[in-house]
Write a structure and sequence with these properties.
The complex is a heterodimer. Chain A is an alpha/beta fold. Helix content of chain A is about 50%, strand content about 10%. The chains are: A alpha/beta, B mainly alpha.
C-alpha cells in the first residue's frame, strides 16, 4: 500500500503520518510513502477554478501508486483521489478511518490495544468524509457512527454535542478565502464542544485539524476567546493506544497544547494480558 | 451553463430545504437558493455576489435536496464561471500562487521541513523532489496561465 500525505499532513501535521506508519506496522500491513506525489489537489477550491487541473493532477498522483492501494488520512485528498479514480477507473483509494472500520474491524483492532485511553472526546467527522453519498457509499450522509465506534476500541467515549455534524468552517476555500466566515463557523462549533466538557476534539482530517487547532489560536488573538481544547487525529490516538510514545506523535507541536490531556495520554490504563 | 445542470435546476420546487440545511447561511448572508435561482434565470452567475465564496461545500444541501439537484456541484460550476470573468478573489490568489510555484496549495516553510526531520520523516512531497515539482508546476501553469501570475 502507498500512503498519500497531501500538503496538510506532509507540510503541517507530520505527526499523523508518523502515527499511521506505527499503526500499520503493528497491524503487519506493508505501507510506504507515495514519493513525488503533489497536492491532491483540494477538491472544492480547485474545481472552483479548473476541473481539468483538478483531474490532471489527481491522475498524476494516482498513476504514481502503480496499481497499489492508496491510503489517505485527509478528507480532501480522499475526495479528490476517490472521485477521480472512480471517473477514470484507475486506482484503489481508501480513507484510513473507513479502511480500519471495514477491513480490520473494531473487534480485531481491540486486540492490538496495549493502553486504554478512557477519554471524553468530541468527534468531528469532517463533511467530505461522508458526503456526497454518491461517492462515500460506506456510511450515512446524515449521522455516521463509524468514528464513534472506532474510539471505543481504546475505551474512549464519544460525547454528543451541539453542532456535531456541522462543518468546522475550514472547507471549500473558506478558511483561505473568507477567513472571517470560517472563524464565525468555528465559534459556533467550539461553543457546542465547550458545553460538552471533553478532553479533546478527535478528527480524521488534517484540514479540520488545522481549522480547530490554529483557528482556536486565531480566535484567542482576535477576539480573546480562549477555548484551549486540544485536537488530535484518530490515527494518533490509536497509535498511542497501541503503545507509541506520545512525544513521537507530534502532539506537543500543535498550536493548542494541553498538558493535562498529554498526561492522560501518557498514563492511560494498562491492558492486562 | 452546463445543459444537464440547467435541466436539473429547473426541477426545483422552492421548498427551501437547501437554505435550511446551510450551516454557512446561518452565520453569513450566503443564500444558496437565491444564488442558484438567479444563476438559472440569468444563465450566468451574478457578478456582484461574493457570498458564493462563503460556501464551505459541506454538501448538506445537495444531499438533502428532495429533487436530487446537485446544488453544491452547480455552485462550484458557478464559481468557475465567475473566476473566468473576474478572476480569483484576492486571498485565494495566494493559494494558487503557491500551487503554481511549489506544487502545494499549502507549501512547507523551513520550520515545517525541520519538524519532519525531527520526527525522522523524509521530505518526499513533490515540493521537495525537483523533477516531480517541475512536472506538477507545468500542469498547473498550463491550466491556470491566465488566473495566477
Amino acid at each position: 500500500m502507498k500512503f498519500f500525505p497531501g500538503c496538510m499532513i506532509h507540510n503541517r501535521y507530520p505527526g499523523i503520518e508518523k502515527a499511521l506508519y506505527y499503526v500499520f506496522e503493528k497491524l503487519g500491513i506493508d505501507i510506504s510513502p507515495l514519493e513525488g506525489s503533489s497536492c491532491c489537489p483540494a477538491p472544492s477550491i480547485t474545481r472552483s477554478v479548473s476541473s481539468e487541473l483538478w483531474e490532471e493532477l489527481a491522475q498524476r498522483n494516482l498513476k504514481l501508486a502503480d496499481g497499489e492501494t492508496v491510503i489517505t488520512a485527509c478528507n480532501g485528498c480522499f475526495t479528490t483521489l476517490l472521485e477521480v479514480s472512480e471517473k477514470s477507473g484507475t486506482g484503489d483509494v481508501r480513507h484510513v478511518a473507513e479502511f480500519f472500520y471495514t477491513e480490520i474491524g473494531v473487534e480485531e483492532l481491540k486486540r492490538y490495544v496495549e493502553k486504554r485511553l478512557p477519554l471524553k472526546l468530541a468527534i468531528h467527522y469532517g463533511c467530505h468524509f461522508f458526503r456526497p453519498s454518491k461517492h462515500k457509499k460506506f456510511t450515512s450522509p446524515e449521522r455516521p457512527k463509524m468514528l464513534d465506534e472506532l474510539v471505543e476500541v481504546f475505551g474512549a467515549e464519544s460525547v454528543d454535542y451541539r453542532y456535531k455534524f456541522m462543518c468546522c468552517g475550514g472547507g471549500g476555500g473558506v478558511r483561505a478565502g473568507a477567513t472571517e466566515v470560517s472563524h464565525d463557523l468555528l465559534r459556533r462549533k467550539m461553543d457546542g464542544i465547550v458545553e460538552a466538557d471533553v478532553d479533546a476534539i478527535a478528527v480524521i482530517c488534517p484540514l479540520c485539524m488545522n481549522q480547530f487547532d490554529n483557528g482556536q489560536k486565531e480566535l484567542s488573538e482576535l477576539v480573546g476567546e480562549d477555548y484551549g481544547i486540544p485536537v488530535i487525529h484518530y490515527v494518533q490516538l490509536l497509535a498511542i493506544a497501541m503503545g507509541m510514545d506520545v512525544e513521537d506523535t507530534g502532539l506537543e507541536r500543535h498550536a493548542i497544547v494541553s498538558h493535562s490531556f498529554i498526561e492522560k495520554l501518557v498514563k492511560g490504563e494498562k491492558v492486562e494480558d | 451553463m452546463n445543459e444537464e445542470y440547467l435541466r436539473k435546476l429547473n426541477t426545483c420546487i422552492q421548498c427551501g430545504t437547501c437554505i435550511g440545511s446551510c450551516f454557512s447561511g446561518k452565520v453569513t448572508a450566503l443564500n444558496t437558493r437565491k444564488i442558484l435561482m438567479e444563476y438559472l434565470a440569468k444563465g450566468k452567475p451574478v457578478k456582484e455576489d461574493d457570498t458564493i465564496w462563503f460556501c464551505v461545500t459541506c454538501y448538506a444541501c445537495q444531499e438533502r435536496c428532495p429533487r436530487g439537484i446537485p446544488l453544491t456541484d452547480i455552485l462550484i460550476e458557478a464559481r468557475k464561471e465567475l473566476v473566468k470573468e473576474k478572476g480569483l478573489p484576492g486571498r485565494l490568489k495566494n493559494a494558487f500562487g503557491f500551487l503554481a510555484e511549489y506544487s502545494a496549495l499549502v507549501p512547507a516553510r523551513d520550520e515545517h521541513a525541520k519538524l519532519r526531520e525531527e520526527l525522522g520523516l523524509p521530505l518526499y512531497h513533490s515540493q521537495f523532489v525537483d523533477g516531480a515539482r517541475d512536472e506538477v508546476v507545468e500542469i498547473v501553469r498550463k491550466h491556470l496561465g491566465g488566473v495566477v501570475r
